[in-house]
Design brief:
The structure is a single chain. By secondary structure, this protein is mainly β. It has two domains: 11-47, no CATH class; 54-162, Jelly Rolls, CATH 2.60.120. The chain has strands at residues 11-12, 17-23, 29-36, 41-42, 54-65, 72-75, 82-93, 98-104, 114-116, 121-124, 135-136, 143-147, 152-162. The strands form four sheets. Strands 5, 7, 10, 11 and 13 form a five-stranded antiparallel sheet that branches. Strands 6-12-8-9 form a four-stranded antiparallel sheet, with no helix packed on it. A hairpin with a 5-residue loop joins strand 2 (17-23) and strand 3. The radius of gyration is 20 Å and the shape is flat.
């Protein structure tokens, strides 16, 4: 099965037959519905998000956080007129149950305290759209984490964006 990606303002011809499927995660797909488009359809810009960000760099880094520690830098402040945009994140507690909170270097919370069970974690699937990150850190601010009783390991995918 092939994925078809439509860009903004893509015209879908009248009377096009679409078959929609759900990915079951095991290599199989379940049909959801069949629709016939009775008129021209244009993909709105809102699907891809506003603006056209200038991505200076895009990378992934390992997350390795100590237990019960505040202000642990995940990504250093990027400099004047630049922001950190988070596109994907995986974190897992590996020593005990605890919490993790994401914040900037002024301790402005970007998330609440996220509870993690021992050997438990969470995933924020990578956003495939550069205009719509999961989190935006304020201009010229570092991305930090505070932890509770657990050490936390994982992977962070982010970009440095000119604003």
């Amino acid at each position: 099965m092939a994925d078809i990606v439509l860009t903004p303002n893509t015209q879908i011809p009248r009377n096009t037959r679409l078959k929609l499927y759900h990915d079951n995660g095991d290599g199989t797909h379940t049909p959801l519905t069949v629709s016939t488009i009775s008129g021209d359809v244009e993909m709105p810009a809102a699907v891809t998000g506003p603006g056209n960000p200038t991505i200076d760099s895009y990378t992934s880094v390992a997350v390795d956080l100590a237990a019960s520690t505040a202000n642990q830098v995940l990504v250093a402040a990027p400099g004047a007129n630049k922001q950190i945009w988070v596109y994907g994140l995986f974190m897992m507690a590996d020593t005990a149950a605890g919490t993790v909170t994401l914040q900037d270097d002024d301790d402005t919370a970007l998330t609440g305290a996220i509870a993690l069970s021992d050997e438990g974690g969470f995933v924020i699937n990578p956003s495939g759209n550069f205009a719509m990150p999961w989190l935006k850190v304020a201009t010229n601010k570092a991305l930090e984490a505070d932890t509770g009783a657990c050490t936390v390991d994982g992977l962070l995918t982010y970009a440095i964006v000119s604003v």
